[in-house]
Design goal:
The chain is α/β, with parallel strands linked by helices. Helix content is 42%, strand content 7%. The protein folds into 2 domains: 68-173 and 185-373, Rossmann fold (3-Layer(aba) Sandwich); 378-462, no CATH class. It is built from 15 helices and 8 strands. Helix 1 packs across helix 2. The protein binds zinc ion (2 copies). The site of one zinc ion (ZN) has 8 residues, from helix 1.
């Protein structure tokens, strides 16, 4: 239960009175209007349905308003999984766009859904069915939408692992200018354009080819990649990476500068501890913060991170938000559960008895700085996660023996060992478990080759003038 204040989110400290377990239906009055409360959120704050809805909707706007990174008129891609949080996020955007002018959201949303059925053990019929349901849901919003298949990640260009040309640095002032400019423009156009069309039969820009499943050979290739991965943990990480890159690619090719993902406060807390366990401590802030600018040209924004999973569940239930639940990632027989699942179970279990658990973890994460993830040059950036390499010198030597495996059949640059220097500590651990190079996605191999070659070239050009110099230290 998050200590969510109206606009501050999971900010306030835990109240003295703690309730155990689920909030029962109480005859207590709503804290806002005095009507009869329908639910209790946080620690002992009763709300009636209407006031809960206002609170929920306001929180979304407040989150965007406070952070000021989404500009009016900007094209924003909402990444939807069909799950509770992203479905609630979509509803917030719909609510926000249908408001009266003063409170209206002013960006231009589009939607993307990535079909992961292949690696989630769905049969062809199940995939078709899920896709059809999802497509109907997306279509009903009236927003343009894109359907993608995880298989398409195998066709990604290597450039997806390079940051695009940086966007406008600090918003602040330019945000204000953008808002004023936008309002002026809207006045001139007589409020006809600039916002989005209201939900309705206006703009339908679904990918026409999308409902069809990918070629079976592609699915087989994807399955081989996932089956070669040695642990459930690395498989979860791989899935997240492929999905992120696929969404990013869609954003780049279709001209979206912002992507919204829907991690809840609960999800953020789980991810904080998971990533800590995975050796990604230096990157917690970019991995979980409100904004994630590692890709340069496309900013990832997480506007749902102030909502608890419980709030979202109540909201979806009360206001009939449709969701589509995907089955979990397929695991091998007798395989240990992933660290992701273990942490989730641990935190949610703890939360049952200590309702401040999630909010405490979440608030601790708020104190972290994204600075350690910033890389100034390509050679300092992790090949897979694009964060700054957090390993150098002696540290690297100490880690090397445990990370490099013997692969005599591979030679030259095409060996797993050659990849290691390109990776951050956390990605090294994952990479080690990703299976043979041959099954890795082609774009990862291509970009690694490019970087290995350019590092070699650099080395050669440096070697000539340095020949005479005495090394100062050995
Ligand atoms: Zn009320
Ligand atoms: Zn990395």
């Amino acid at each position: 239960m998050c200590e969510a204040a109206g606009d501050g989110g999971c900010g306030a400290g835990p109240g003295p009175a703690r309730r155990r377990g689920q909030g029962h239906s109480h005859p207590r009055p709503c804290m806002k209007c005095g009507g009869s409360a329908a639910l209790i959120i946080r620690i002992g704050d009763p709300f009636c349905r209407g006031c809960f809805r206002d609170y929920f909707v306001h929180k979304f706007r407040a989150m965007l308003g406070k952070n000021r990174v989404i500009f009016p008129g900007e094209k924003v891609l909402l990444a939807l999984s069909g799950g509770p949080a992203s479905s609630a996020m979509l509803r917030q955007v719909q609510e926000g766009l249908s408001r009266e002018t003063a409170k209206k959201l002013r960006f231009v949303p589009s939607l993307i859904y990535v079909d992961e059925g292949a690696v989630r053990g769905q049969s062809l019929a199940q995939r078709e069915q899920t896709l059809a349901r999802m497509e109907a849901l997306l279509q009903a919003t009236g927003f343009p939408f894109h359907l993608a298949h995880l298989e398409q990640a195998l066709e990604l260009p290597a450039s997806i692992l390079r940051p695009g040309p940086g966007s406008s640095g600090k918003p602040g002032q330019s945000y204000k200018e953008a808002v004023e400019g936008f309002i002026q423009q809207q006045r001139q156009e007589g409020d006809r354009e600039g916002g989005t069309s209201p939900p309705g039969p206006s703009t339908q820009v679904g990918d026409p080819a999308a409902p069809h499943l990918p070629a079976p050979a592609r699915t087989q290739e994807l399955l081989r990649l996932f089956e070669a991965v040695e642990t459930a943990t690395a498989r979860e990480e791989l899935l997240q990476m492929l999905r992120t890159h696929l969404i990013l690619q869609t954003a780049r090719t279709k001209g979206y500068t912002k992507v919204m993902t829907a991690e809840s406060c609960t999800r953020v807390a789980i991810k904080l501890l998971t990533n800590l366990t995975l050796g990604r401590g230096a990157f917690l802030a970019v991995d979980t913060g409100f904004t994630d600018d590692r890709h340069g040209d496309v900013l990832v924004v997480r506007p749902m991170r102030d909502y608890t999973a419980k709030e979202i569940a109540f909201y979806n239930h009360f206001f009939h938000v449709p969701t589509i639940i995907a089955p979990p990632l397929r695991t091998k027989r007798r395989e240990k559960p992933s660290i992701h699942r273990l942490i989730e179970r641990f935190l949610l279990g703890l939360q049952e008895d200590y309702p401040a658990t999630i909010s405490t973890v979440y608030r601790t994460g708020e104190k972290l700085s994204p600075a350690p993830a910033k890389a100034s040059s390509e050679s300092e950036r992790c090949l897979l996660c694009l964060c700054a390499l957090d390993i150098d010198g002696e540290e690297e030597l100490a880690l090397e023996p445990t990370l490099i495996m013997e692969e005599p059949e591979e030679n030259g640059a095409e060996s797993k060992a050659a990849f290691i220097p390109l990776l951050c500590y956390g990605c090294r651990l994952t990479f080690k478990e990703l299976g043979p190079l041959a099954t890795l996605p082609p774009y990862v191999r291509a970009e690694a080759q490019r970087r290995i070659h350019s590092a070699q070239m650099e080395q050669q050009s440096l070697e000539v003038p340095q020949e005479d110099e005495e090394p100062s230290k050995s």
